[in-house]
């Protein structure tokens, strides 16, 4: 008799699970359809070697288009490569290749540290999809150019060349993101000097960019005679001591990625400490999408920054892989669910090659505030891919 009751309970449970999963499938499918409609806008966007879409002002309906030398040029081809990966549709791959080719000359541009963003997000993504000797050569040549910005005494890569009357040798936390290009170039070329340089930069940043609470400064300016930090300030945050959300994102992503290549525990510890600062912050909204700066006094009325949430969500899928800490994975899943909702997804009717709304580029300059921005989409797509890979591993 007891056995019969147990059997009935199991059958009821199975039936209720079946119902639950079919509801989930329906809602995922709807989100998928909406996403596919947005993806199509990227595919349809007309090719132009001098007009990479960077953001859109929805009030004036104007797309900001930039040249290959802009730090954001690599994200659009990167988005097409990643959509190809998600959908398997060859049309995205073909478009990605065409846009990627337009950036090649940037491999010689030594006036910027943004080489990783430009070259790795485009050519680097291409290499994930095909063996391509030409792409490998571009990566190595770019690493060679980026290396010319390294100062042996300061043990860092110089970030910016502007503002010379204020800064001597500015290094920004964002610069951590360019190290992936150097690590990959070292593997491809078997020249360990790129690896060593990346490690030196990461060590110097580790020493000087972080505060006792594990948040980070945006800019550390070094003295070119004593080679020591001479000021710790912000350029895009609310003030020098505030925590600019995207900067925290670059730090979390940067040290997680640096741990991938080096297995240096100090990098893992820093990634975790800054991730904990971020996800446990009292000003982080319930849906996981941060305000543009954790210390903007106008919170809760301050603009959000979807890009910061997406960068951190992507990084935390990887960090989960090294720590098994479910809190990290839960944050990433929460962000993806929020971003797939109507609160953040761009309406199907908006004719612009972007997926998500509500990123904030440069609040102090009132530039690209609360808008769709190409790198918000990039790290969102990367999170989707990383979660997909994780699911495949678990199955
Ligand atoms: N790397 C520039 C920015 O994050 O806005």
How is the largest sheet built, in terms of strand order? 5-6-7
Distance between the termini: 36 Å
Approximately how much helix is present in the residues? Answer: 40-55%
Structural class: mainly alpha
Overall form: globular
Oligomeric state of shown chains:
single chain
Overall mean pLDDT: 93
**What's the CATH class label?**
Mainly Alpha
List the helices and strands in order.
Answer: HEEHHHHEEEHHEEHHHHH
The CATH topology:
Glycosyltransferase
- Rg over CA atoms: 22 Å
Number of helices: 12
Largest sheet descriptor? 3 strands, antiparallel
Number of strands: 7
Account of the protein in words:
The protein has 395 residues and is mainly alpha-helical. It has helices at 2-44, 75-87, 90-101, 115-127, 133-147, 179-189, 192-208, 245-262, 265-279, 306-323, 326-339, 374-394, and strands at residues 52-57, 62-66, 150-151, 156-157, 169-172, 219-222, 229-233. It has one domain (42-394): Alpha/alpha barrel (Glycosyltransferase), CATH 1.50.10. A 3-stranded antiparallel beta sheet has the order 5-6-7, with no helix packed on it. Strands 1-2 form a two-stranded antiparallel ribbon. The longest helix has 43 residues, at 2-44. The site of glycine has 5 residues, from loops.
């Amino acid at each position: 008799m007891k056995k019969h009751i147990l059997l009935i309970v199991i059958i009821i449970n199975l039936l209720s699970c079946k119902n639950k999963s079919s509801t989930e499938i329906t809602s995922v499918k709807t989100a998928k359809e909406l996403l596919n409609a947005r993806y199509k806008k990227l595919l349809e966007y007309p090719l132009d070697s001098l007009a990479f879409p960077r953001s859109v002002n929805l009030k004036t309906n104007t797309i900001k288009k930039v040249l290959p030398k802009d730090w954001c040029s690599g994200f659009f081809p990167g988005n097409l490569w990643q959509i190809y990966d998600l959908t398997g549709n060859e049309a995205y791959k073909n478009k990605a290749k065409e846009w990627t080719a337009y950036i090649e000359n940037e491999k010689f541009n030594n006036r910027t540290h943004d080489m990783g963003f430009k070259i790795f997000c485009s050519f680097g993504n291409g290499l994930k999809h095909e063996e391509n000797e030409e792409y490998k050569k571009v990566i190595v040549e770019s690493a060679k150019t980026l290396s010319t910005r390294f100062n042996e005494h300061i043990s860092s890569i110089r970030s910016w060349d502007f503002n010379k009357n204020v800064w001597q040798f500015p290094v920004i936390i964002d610069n951590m993101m360019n190290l992936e290009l150097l690590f990959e170039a070292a593997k491809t070329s078997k020249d360990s000097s790129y690896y060593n340089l990346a490690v030196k930069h990461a060590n110097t940043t580790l020493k000087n960019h972080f505060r006792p609470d594990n948040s980070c400064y945006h800019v550390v300016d070094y003295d070119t005679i004593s080679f020591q930090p001479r000021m710790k300030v912000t350029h895009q945050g609310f003030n020098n001591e505030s925590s600019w959300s995207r900067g925290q994102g670059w730090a979390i992503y940067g040290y997680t990625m640096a741990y991938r290549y080096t297995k240096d525990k100090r990098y893992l510890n820093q990634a975790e400490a800054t991730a904990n600062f971020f996800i446990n912050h009292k000003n982080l909204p319930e849906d996981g999408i941060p305000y543009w700066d954790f210390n903007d006094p106008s919170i809760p009325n301050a603009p959000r920054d979807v890009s910061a949430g997406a960068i951190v969500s992507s990084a935390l899928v990887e960090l989960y892989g090294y720590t098994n800490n479910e809190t990290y994975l839960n944050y990433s899943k929460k962000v993806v669910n929020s971003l797939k909702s109507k609160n953040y997804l761009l309406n199907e009717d908006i004719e612009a090659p972007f997926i998500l709304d509500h990123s904030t580029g440069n609040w102090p300059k009132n530039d690209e505030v609360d808008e769709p921005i190409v790198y918000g989409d990039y790290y969102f797509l990367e999170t989707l891919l990383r979660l997909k890979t994780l699911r495949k591993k678990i199955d």
